[in-house]
Design brief:
135 residues, mainly alpha, 0% strand, globular
Length: 135
């Protein structure tokens, strides 16, 4: 392999004028890459998930959805239910329309712990299949 993804330091050094993104997204990328570069946010193997979450949520543009997604993907947290996600909401609504399988999502989420990330992924997959089937 002759190419690597840029380091956090390299991303933090990119001038805002070089990004073709909304200003709020540029601020978030700059803040996150700077925090990763200076070590104030640790997403490495063995990082404390709760500490990482607190530090992520302190950054501009990182809210519950982004935090949950990063916990699942970067930190390997098996117990994240991203209930604010539109795909999750649509999957739950569709399953409630077609069966009594889901019921109260809060109860389902509670009963799925400590494996709620898998529930989130199953609901995303269900929603993706539903979108593919819709003419």
């Amino acid at each position: 392999m002759d190419r690597l993804f840029p380091t956090a330091e390299a991303i933090a050094a990119v001038p805002a004028s070089d990004w073709a993104l909304p200003e709020s997204r540029i601020r978030t990328i700059a803040a996150l890459s700077s925090a990763l570069a200076d070590g104030s946010v640790d997403l490495g193997a063995g990082a404390d998930r709760d500490e990482a979450s607190r530090n992520l949520l302190a950054l501009p543009g990182i809210g519950p959805w982004s935090n949950g997604y990063i916990r699942m993907r970067a930190l390997g947290d098996p117990d994240v239910f991203v209930d604010s996600d539109l795909g999750v909401k649509k999957a739950i609504a569709e399953l409630n329309e077609t069966s009594a399988f889901i019921g109260d999502w809060k109860e389902l989420s509670k009963n799925s712990s400590p494996w709620r990330s898998y529930l989130t992924h199953l609901l995303w997959a269900h929603h993706a299949r539903r979108v593919e089937r819709t003419p």
